[in-house]
Amino acid sequence: MSPTVENASESDPGNASGNAANAAAPLRRAMETIRSLRAQLDAVRSTQRVAVVGAGLRAPGGIADRETYWQALLAGRELTGELPDQRRPAGDWDGLLSRGGYLDDVLGFDADFFGISPREARNLDPQHRLLLEVAWEAFEDAAIPPAAVAARAGVFIGITGQDYRTWATDDPSPSWLIGNGHCFSAGRIAHTLGLQGPVLAIDTACSSSLVAVHQACRALAAGDCDVAAAGGVNLVLSPRSTAEIQRTSALSPDGRCRPFDARANGFVRGEGCGVLVLKRLADAERDGDRILAVIEGTGVNHDGNSTGFTAPNMLAQARLIESVLETAGLTASDIGYLEAHGTGTPLGDPIELEAARMALGTTGRTWHVGSVKANLGHTEAAAGVLGLLKVVLCLQHRQIPPQARFETLNPRIKLGDGLTVPREAVRWEPSAGRCAGVSSFGMSGTNAHAVLSSYEHTPYEYTGGPAPAGGFLVSAHTESALRTLAAHYSDRLQDVGYPEFAHTATHGRTRLRHAAWIKADGAQEAREALTALAAGAEDGRIQLLDPDDPLPETVADTGRAVVSLPGYPWERRIHSIRPVPTA
Predict the structure, then answer these.
(1) How many whole angstroms from its chain centre is CA 234?
(2) What distance in Å separates the CA atoms of residue 111 and residue 554, rounded to the nearest whole number?
(3) Inter-residue contact 111 to 575 (CB < 8 Å)
(4) CA 226 to chain centre
(5) For residue 116, what are the contacts with CB-CB under 8 A and spacing of at least 6?
(6) What per-residue confidence (pLDDT) applies to 8?
């Protein structure tokens, strides 16, 4: 009798193993498909990860660089005060809430450096002038001369205010037209620096600069550009805009911004500017850039039909945070700090923190929330990028500054779920999550959110260390600026390695009209020669160069190294369409 099929399979080990292999084949194919899809998803996400490789900024309290900004944050300094008298034309500010966060100099501008005539400079919105300087500083901080990336570099600027328009009394000149429209703020940067990528000016009110960063990240991911300058600016130049805001009852009657505090009664206006230089992370690693932080993901949405046109929408805010995390492949447990919009309004802050708890606060870890508006005031169109720069510094130092002016929690706010408002500087524990979020919400209803992480690879991992240096270049637009820069370089050489310094000074800065080659094999020699150059003294190690002269020696542009060097020493003059009182 012939055996049954079942008996044959039981008695034939080879046949049984073949059946098992056949049964396993679909599972293998499914696992291979999953691995392939994961690899594709990782590849997509890798193009979305963006490196912050440089930054320029201005903030109240004389802040003009990251280190000064960090020290002010760490000390919990309140940098607001009364509007300076020289910015108060007689009677114009009577009855207005004028306490705020103000920059030291808003009308001074180094027009000659940018090839702008005095007449055109007078007609140029001081916000546009400030953007030019800060964008230049951001590229210097990144050690990327704009000309080296011009064909593939874009500009994305958040800007809302147009106070300078109210200064006009006579019929405007043609240069007035192109000096004050929002679109010209970004366009002038691109024109002046020769950048030819996408160029956008964005106005979504208070979220403008973070929306600009989002648009820049999208353009990089899409391949529209390889480098992006993104940020925003805000200056308070007219009582009219303050009067309009005051009528909404949004301003603090006592001129104090107290996010999350029981005494919160509104915000104070603030001035500031921030510009980031961004690249795709893979490109930044390939090029040996110094990476300050990584933007893991960004997103934008709108409040929709909320309870009022300017009213926040808790569910929309929570959905935005959740969406950005999902797109970046992250979870709530990855977030250790949230830089909130946090304007210090008694109802807006509780809504925002409840939305944050909905999106982030269910993992049982300890996480922190803060708002830089307590330090600076509400810098409006620049608020998002200045909050993002605070996050970059927190990630770099693995520390969270105290929340300025915070005493008693707003009774409408429920913390819980591990959420805390730091009263003093706290160490960012690894268990709290490796990433940080930053939110910026516009009065128009447009919300923006970004998630950042620290960059943990070691320097030169991708390009090797810098080559030994036998000298370096110093250059400036004028002789006096050259001497000033030499003095600043000499001071900086006390704190950085000489090969890194020489490489950054020579390859990371644009060569300008007045230049000198400093021949030196080490830091001490270099400092002596720089001191002589600053004093206008002769020194055999200094060789002055004409614009067309080649460098006396070649500094190898291999093993790229980037360190922070002093920014350009601007030689500002007052440019204004009306008389300005002196201090």
Answers:
(1) 14
(2) 33
(3) yes
(4) 17
(5) 124
(6) 42
Element of type H or E holding 488: helix 479-492
pTM of the model: 0.91
Least confident piece of the model among 279-288, 351-360, 451-460: 451-460
**446 by DSSP, 3-state: which?**
strand
pLDDT of residue 1 exceeding 70, the answer is no
Examine the pLDDT at 309 and tell me if it is beyond 90: no
Chain-centre distance for alpha carbon 524: 34
pLDDT digits (tens, 9 = 90+) for 198-233: 999 999 999 999 999 999 999 999 999 999 999 999
Integer CA distances (angstroms), 543 to 475, 493, 534, in order: 12, 19, 13
pLDDT band at 9 (very low <50, low <70, confident <90, very high): very low
Backbone angles phi, psi at 278, to 5 degrees: -120, 145
Packing angle between helix 314-328 and helix 348-360, nearest 10 degrees?
40
Identify the residue whose tokens are 């620096």: 193
User: Any long-range contacts for 21-29 (C-beta under 8 Å, 24+ apart)?
Assistant: none
DSSP class of residue 305 equals: S
385 vs 483: CA distance, rounded Å: 33
Distance CA 506, CA 504 (A): 6
Residue 125 CA to its chain's centroid (Å): 22
Measured distance CA(171)–CA(158) in Å, rounded: 28
Residue 50 pairs in a beta bridge with 280, 295
Question: What is the number of other CB atoms lying within 10 angstroms of the CB of residue 118?
Answer: 12
- The tens digit of pLDDT for each residue in 445-477 reads 999 999 999 998 866 555 666 667 889 999 999
The span from the CA of 530 to the CA of 494, in Å, is: 12
